[in-house]
């Protein structure tokens, strides 16, 4: 695993954007695995700036997102499809027909998951997967569990994740309690993985995930087994990790 320790969030975002832009330049029709949440916003903003300068072309890029809340439409401003449109897709020349997010409106969980696994398979998997890291070690919505889920599945979100997401909704009751998420098996099949972390609040879980035992109770710990992982973080997020290596 390669580790890039940036001085702050802006520097970390630019570093991650550099890795993504290199992937697009080397393989213009690459498949990007994209993530939502507050952490990658700075990375997406940097990619947009480079696109506006004429340095990047997204016209042949395909994207497969990690997850989506069950029950939310694409037009709901808290859905992850809406997030991706707002923070990246609407600002670059990507073909939205080539951007994929789980169908949150599909009530049949088995069908939704089966359909999404087929999308991943039909595109040959992911070339570069972007990940954030939850405070409990979740990646996507793969929560601490007794085993590592292989394929796309419907997850009942933990109370800690629901609480963490509550700031985006009018009330706790409005926060979805379930989500469709790409499985650990699918994530691990990505050719390259970039994990972006920021802030002092992530320092303990970063150390636990990347220096601790590999266990489904810390889902991100499985990334220790991947052959090409890049951890990009600011000094605060990597402070405990750096002490341990």
Q: What proportion of the residues is helical, as a percent range?
A: 25-40%
Question: Remind me, CATH topology?
Answer: Rossmann fold
Distance between the termini: 12 Å
Q: Low-confidence parts, pLDDT < 50 over ≥5 residues? A: none
CATH second-level architecture: 3-Layer(aba) Sandwich
Topology as a string of helices (H) and strands (E): EHEHEEHEHEEHEHEHEH
CATH class: Alpha Beta
- The total strand number stands at 10
Mean pLDDT: 96
Within the largest sheet, what's the order of strands? 1-10-9-6-2-3-5
Draw up the topology in text:
Elements: E1 2-6, H1 9-26, E2 31-34, H2 41-52, E3 62-65, E4 67-69, H3 80-87, E5 99-100, H4 109-122, E6 128-131, E7 153-156, H5 159-165, E8 178-181, H6 184-188, E9 192-197, H7 203-211, E10 229-234, H8 239-244
Parallel strand pairs: 1-10, 2-3, 2-6, 3-5, 6-9, 9-10
Antiparallel strand pairs: 4-8, 7-8
Structure report:
This protein is of the alpha/beta class and 245 residues long. Helix content is 32%, strand content 17%. The protein has a 7-stranded parallel sheet with strand order 1-10-9-6-2-3-5, with helices on one face. A 3-stranded antiparallel sheet has the order 4-8-7, with helices on one face. Helix 1 packs across helix 2 (41-52). The radius of gyration is 17 Å and the shape is globular. The termini are close together.
Task: Give structural attributes.
single chain, 245 residues, alpha/beta, Rossmann fold, 7-stranded parallel sheet, 3-stranded antiparallel sheet, 8 helices, 10 strands, 32% helix, 17% strand, globular
């Amino acid at each position: 695993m390669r580790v890039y320790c940036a001085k702050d969030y802006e520097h970390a975002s630019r570093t991650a954007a550099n890795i993504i832009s290199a992937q697009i330049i080397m393989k213009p029709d690459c498949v990007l695995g994209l993530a939502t949440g507050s952490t990658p916003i700075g990375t997406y903003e940097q990619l947009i700036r480079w696109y506006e300068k004429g340095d990047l072309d997204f016209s042949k890029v395909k994207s497969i997102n990690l997850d989506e809340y069950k029950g939310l439409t694409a037009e709901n401003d808290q859905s992850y499809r809406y997030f991706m449109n707002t923070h990246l897709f609407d600002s670059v020349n990507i073909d939205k027909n080539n951007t994929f997010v789980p169908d949150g409106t599909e009530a049949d969980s088995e069908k939704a998951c089966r359909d999404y696994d087929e999308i991943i398979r039909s595109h040959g998997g992911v070339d570069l997967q972007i990940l954030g890291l939850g405070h409990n070690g979740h990646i996507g919505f793969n929560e601490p569990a007794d085993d590592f889920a292989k394929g796309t599945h419907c997850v009942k979100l933990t109370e800690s994740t629901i609480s963490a997401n509550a700031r985006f909704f009018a009330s706790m009751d409005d926060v979805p309690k379930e989500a469709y998420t790409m499985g650990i098996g699918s994530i691990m099949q990505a050719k390259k993985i970039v994990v972006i972390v920021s802030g002092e609040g992530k320092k303990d879980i970063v150390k636990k995930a990347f220096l601790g035992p590999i266990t489904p109770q810390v889902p991100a710990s499985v990334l220790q087994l991947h052959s090409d992982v890049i951890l990009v973080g600011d000094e605060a997020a990597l402070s405990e990790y750096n002490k341990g290596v």
